[in-house]
């Protein structure tokens, strides 16, 4: 119950207005005049203060008419002909619907409030003298060292100084399993240290932390309405002008053509002024969009505006970058084949000893894969040398070993092992060749494997008749290899960064509304050119800035979640628009037939407004 009144003064005034109407009704029943009129007028002023003030301010400052003016005029008109109770009820229910809309907005910003609470306001700064000092988190500078006690939230993005840490990253990744961190690993502000106290070096300004970016993005998105909401708001002034002309004309029709008498004609005009107002129509889109944006934020998807979320369900094609988006971004060993299996252990030790001296990403993948097989035993070399762009070369006694590219290692292209290795290469795999004294002894094949959920995500969009494409700078064979594993409809390979951007423009002409998903600096131009650009949360800052949507958790399946959320948002908006128009038409007709009075008209009209707001609130779940 307290949530209804939190940061919502109009709701408190609405409740007071309701009690004043109740007391005014009692006074009117007992003929305590003019007390009943005083109570009803008080209810008018208190209940309609905020929205009446807003309507008058817009009229005076911006010279634009809105539904608030219609409601005030209807209530004043009813009171002029002695229907004080009806006028007060009109203001009360109108105020209630407005207060509920504020409540919707507040609920939608709970995601921001929740995120802000995740990062502590203070941090334990480790001074140069070795003492700890409690300081404001926002005062921390890059290079500062902070202590994070067990069970405490890390105050700011940084790098682990301690040798080991166990971090609960569920607030960012959604994964409940804690993540082991080693020295120099990145840690994120707002995640929780569940191991022994750790030291963290600050690497990011307070305003540039991941959570600060999230909060900023959600805040901006909630201030950017959807296209439907913008359109509805754009017709408000014109609609109000039509109603203000239509009502006096109808009063004259009632009076002189139908002969209903002045009081009845004026009364029917006030009912018409009430029921023809587009309050429910105006509330059809914005509360629902705010709720959907909040829903996305809580689930790790940030939309930079309501229009991007609304349009997501209208896409006809979706293009993915390969490396780091559809794939894990780091190659994994898939094949290790030896010329003579009996020398396998020795060759593995040779490979690990040589590759440990290299900084190449492929070398890291090979060492990680083979280290367990060598059981910690390394081959002894007299000399190891890295040949830039080709591979590694090592000398042990009279033996010379090589590992690297084919042209660097292989001397006989007709060697059956070389032919087999080339077949792996034609499958799109990266192959490292190993030789001893220029004789090919082994090859190691690596592949950047599909990211978790990549195939399921592609299958989802294909099942909805949305064209799926993969764009990569790799060669066609590598692209086709990954593309066939994931199941995309089309692979576009050998694509440079500037070509990606041009390609997206061509694809927009071919397919219409197209989404581009990427993570790197080279994807930023393409993301900017797409109808909707989507950046992976673990990608570069430039990609996140250029994108319209950010997947904070780096989970591709959030794309299908976003598509479902967009479809649900559009369905609810359509329900609200159709329902609100139907109610307006119905109430106008029954008023012309003299089948309703002003209280029933108010309940029907403002009740429909409350219902569309509550319908939009369903998207918070």
From TrEMBL:
Domain of life: Bacteria
GO CC entries: plasma membrane
Main location (coarse class): membrane
Annotated P-type ATPase A domain residues: 117-218
PROSITE patterns membership: ATPASE_E1_E2, COF_2
UniProt-recorded Gene Ontology molecular function terms: ATP binding; ATP hydrolysis activity; ATPase-coupled monoatomic cation transmembrane transporter activity; metal ion binding
Compartments reported by the entry: Cell membrane
Record key words, sorted: ATP-binding, Cell membrane, Ion transport, Magnesium, Membrane, Metal-binding, Nucleotide-binding, Translocase, Transmembrane, Transmembrane helix, Transport
One Pfam family from the record: E1-E2_ATPase
Family in the record: Belongs to the cation transport ATPase (P-type) (TC 3.A.3) family. Type IB subfamily.
UniProt name for this protein: Cd2+/Zn2+-exporting ATPase
Organism encoding this protein: Alkalibacterium thalassium
């Amino acid at each position: 119950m307290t949530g209804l009144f939190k940061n919502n003064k109009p709701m408190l005034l609405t409740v007071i207005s309701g009690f004043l109407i109740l007391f005014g009704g009692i006074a009117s029943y007992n003929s305590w005049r003019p007390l009943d009129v005083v109570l009803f007028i008080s209810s008018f002023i208190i209940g309609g203060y905020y929205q009446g003030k807003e309507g008058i301010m817009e009229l005076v400052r911006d010279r634009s008419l809105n539904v608030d003016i219609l409601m005030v005029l209807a209530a004043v008109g009813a009171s002029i002909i002695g229907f004080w109770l009806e006028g007060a009820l009109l203001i009360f229910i109108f105020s209630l619907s407005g207060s509920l809309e504020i409540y919707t907005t507040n609920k939608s910003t709970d995601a921001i409030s929740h995120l802000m609470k995740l990062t502590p306001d203070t941090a334990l700064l480790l001074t140069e003298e070795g003492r700890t000092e409690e300081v404001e988190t926002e005062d921390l500078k890059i290079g500062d060292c902070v202590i994070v006690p067990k069970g405490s939230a890390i105050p700011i993005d940084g790098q682990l100084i301690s040798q080991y840490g166990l971090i609960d990253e569920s607030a960012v990744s959604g994964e409940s399993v804690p993540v082991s961190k080693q020295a120099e690993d990145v840690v994120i502000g707002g995640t929780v240290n569940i191991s022994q106290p750790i030291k963290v070096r600050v690497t990011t300004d307070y305003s540039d932390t991941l959570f600060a970016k999230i909060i900023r993005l959600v805040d901006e998105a909630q201030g950017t309405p959807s296209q439907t909401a913008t359109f509805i708001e754009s017709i408000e002034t014109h609609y109000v002008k039509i109603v203000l002309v239509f009502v006096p004309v109808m009063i004259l029709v009632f009076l002189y053509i139908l002969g209903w008498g002045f009081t009845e004609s004026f009364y029917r005009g006030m009912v018409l002024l009430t029921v023809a107002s587009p309050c429910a129509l105006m509330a059809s889109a914005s509360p629902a969009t705010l709720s959907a944006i909040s829903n996305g934020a809580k689930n790790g998807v940030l939309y930079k505006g309501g229009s991007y979320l609304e349009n997501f369900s209208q896409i006809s094609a979706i293009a993915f970058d390969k490396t780091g988006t559809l794939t894990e971004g780091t190659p994994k060993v898939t094949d290790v084949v030896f010329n003579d299996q009996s020398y396998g252990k020795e060759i593995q030790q040779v490979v690990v000893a040589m590759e440990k001296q290299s900084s190449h990403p492929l070398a890291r993948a090979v060492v990680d894969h083979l280290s367990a097989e060598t059981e910690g035993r390394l081959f002894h070399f007299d000399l190891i040398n890295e040949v830039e762009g080709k591979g590694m070369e090592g000398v042990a006694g009279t033996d010379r070993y090589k590992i690297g590219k084919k042209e660097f290692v292989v001397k006989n292209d007709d060697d059956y092992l070389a032919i087999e290795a080339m077949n792996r290469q034609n499958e799109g795999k990266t192959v490292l060749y190993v030789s001893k004294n220029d004789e090919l002894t082994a090859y190691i094949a690596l592949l950047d494997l599909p990211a978790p959920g990549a195939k399921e995500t592609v299958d989802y969009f294909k099942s909805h008749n949305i064209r799926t494409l993969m764009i990569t700078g790799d060669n066609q064979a590598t692209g086709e290899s990954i593309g066939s594993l994931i199941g995309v409809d089309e692979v576009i390979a050998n694509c440079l960064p500037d070509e990606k951007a041009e390609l997206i423009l061509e694809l927009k002409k071919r397919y219409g509304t197209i989404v581009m998903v990427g993570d790197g600096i080279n994807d930023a131009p393409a993301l900017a050119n797409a109808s909707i650009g989507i950046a992976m949360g673990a990608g570069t800052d430039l990609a996140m800035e250029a994108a319209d949507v950010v997947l904070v958790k780096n989970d591709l399946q959030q794309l299908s979640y976003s598509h479902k959320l967009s479809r649900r948002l559009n369905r609810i908006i359509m329900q609200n628009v159709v329902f609100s128009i139907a109610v307006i038409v119905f109430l106008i007709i029954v008023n012309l037939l003299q089948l309703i009075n002003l209280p029933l008209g108010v309940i029907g009209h403002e009740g429909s407004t409350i219902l569309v707001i509550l319908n939009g609130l369903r998207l918070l779940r």
